[in-house]
Write a structure and sequence with these properties.
Layout: H1 12-29, H2 50-53, H3 57-60, E1 68-74, H4 78-89, E2 98-102, H5 117-129, E3 134-139, H6 146-152, H7 155-162, E4 165-168, E5 177-180, E6 191-194, H8 195-199, E7 202-212, E8 217-218, H9 221-224, H10 240-245, H11 250-257, E9 265-274, E10 284-285, E11 289-293, H12 296-309, H13 314-317, H14 325-332, E12 343-346, H15 350-365
Helix pairs in contact: 4-5, 11-14, 12-15
């Protein structure tokens, strides 16, 4: 079964070919250079980027059959929910690997404004139990100074206790940001991706369940990747986040960031959710769920269904779920499943099964 029509849509393999041609295109037309004030924006990345953006087989064909499993645990206990969801999904293979864990530290606001400490702790402990070689917890805050945000959330103290390395992406040098460029992107000149993400043996996400009032419409796993991109690359003047938030193509740009890497695991904390406002504050509902998956499209589609169940904003609630621009662009890029009927909700108890059936009904409606 084909996951997408390679003639009708833009594929990740085509993207790779276009990256190789980007330098020639820029020199022939001056198209990329005309957009700047970025020094050297039309150049190719400093190293070969194909290994970083070549999709894993599961990204093209989730679970080898065009399907994706999303573990669904009804719970009010975040830590236990994380452990149960990962166990239902199947723990990621991290033995002997350097793992980068990307939380949601966009601000220091309490969950779901940011990753709850119980979620972070449970995930780190699970990764250590899987014999990870090293764990780095890294982010760039969008609504505050990342160092101070992580201090306010006691991340550095937890790092000492649990023996992981905290990393502030904003403090990376210019050479630690890699430009991802292609004429097929909606980004004017590409975007600078943190190299620690590209160099990690396994990338793990901890995201929240919430709406986004500043143009993203919702901020789940796809949008959590925005924190891997520099606001301003050292030595340059161009503000990539101004570009992101200043265009009507914002939701497509968000999806395109995800071309740069493939996640080994995604955990979504939906014990509490924002159904409007967000990403830092908003009206809360007790959604009482933790999800785990490896497919970003699948977990975001389930997240949108959950938000609709609790009465989210018109931008999130109207139309087909797979027509939401973040999801639709991710489907075009071959980042995961193509349709709702390719998503399987996996539960381990009757309460979770009954709850999942309600959400699956919304999901399958569109």
């Amino acid at each position: 079964m084909m996951l997408y029509n390679s003639q009708a849509t833009f594929s990740r393999r085509a993207f790779l070919g276009n990256v190789a041609a980007a330098g020639a295109l820029a020199s022939a037309t001056g198209l990329l250079a005309a957009c700047a004030p970025i020094d050297g924006a039309a150049r190719l990345p400093d190293r070969e980027i194909e290994p970083a953006i070549e999709p894993a087989p599961q990204a093209r064909q989730p679970n080898g059959a065009g399907r994706a499993r999303v573990a669904f645990v009804k719970t009010t206990d975040r830590a236990e929910g994380v452990r149960q969801a990962i166990a239902l999904l199947g723990a990621p293979v991290v033995a002997g690997k350097n793992v980068l864990l990307k939380p949601n530290f966009n601000s220091a606001d309490p969950a779901p404004g940011s990753t709850h400490p119980d979620v972070l702790r449970a995930m780190v402990e699970t990764l250590w139990a899987g014999d990870a070689r090293a764990i780095t917890v890294a982010d760039r805050s969008g609504m505050g100074n990342t160092q101070r945000v992580m201090e306010q959330l006691d991340v550095f103290e937890m790092a000492k206790e649990l023996d992981f390395a905290p990393l502030v992406f904003d403090e990376l040098a210019e050479k630690e940001w890699e430009m991802i460029q292609s004429p097929d992107l909606h980004w004017r000149q590409g975007f600078p991706m943190a190299r620690p993400v590209l160099d990690a043996d396994a990338v793990v996400q901890a995201c929240c369940l919430k709406t986004h009032q500043f143009g993203g419409h919702f901020t789940l796993s796809l949008k959590n990747s925005v924190g891997m991109v520099a606001k301003v690359r050292p030595g340059e003047r161009y503000d990539y986040m101004n570009e992101l938030h200043g265009t009507s193509e914002q939701r497509r740009l968000i999806a395109e960031i995800n071309l740069a890497y493939d996640p080994a695991l995604i955990v979504m904390d939906g014990v509490e959710a924002f159904v409007s406002g967000g990403p830092h504050v908003g009206p809360r509902v007790a959604a009482n769920v933790v999800l785990a998956a490896t497919d970003r499209i699948a977990v975001d589609a389930v997240g949108v269904a959950l938000l609709r169940h609790f009465g989210a904003t018109p931008q999130v609630s109207q139309g087909a779920i797979f027509d939401q621009e973040q999801i639709a662009r991710a489907v075009e890029l071959g980042l995961g499943v193509q349709r709702a009927d390719q998503i399987e909700l996996v539960t381990g108890d009757p309460d979770s099964e009954a709850y999942a059936a309600q959400i699956d009904s919304i999901l399958q409606q569109g």
